[in-house]
Amino acid sequence: QVRLVESGGGLVQPGGSLRLSCAASGFVFSIRAMNWYRQAPGEQRELVATISAGGGTTGYAESVKGRFTISRDNAKNTVYLQMNSLKPEDTAVYYCNLVIYPQNYWGQGTQVTVSS
After folding, report:
1. pLDDT tens string 67-105
2. DSSP state, residue 87
């Protein structure tokens, strides 16, 4: 079965960096686009970044463009989210996401808190 396990969250000061990882299993990782979402308290879950199966195409929410970088290692079945210049408004639970139509798969999430 599909399994997505996020890691790498934590508490960081404004301007700091974190690298999130999502280890995937239970499907052929190298043929699937992958996504990162986040959900802040009281807010809807929002798409942060997406990457194509081969890694050659990426997309970002306007709010993170130029600060976040999504990447993947198909040999390790892992997708990453490098987050730089973090702001308090980046505080949220970050989720790894896979869509194999019509099913949406989610990890358990990893908390990112940006605070001084």
Report:
1. 999 999 999 999 999 999 999 999 999 999 999 999 999
2. -
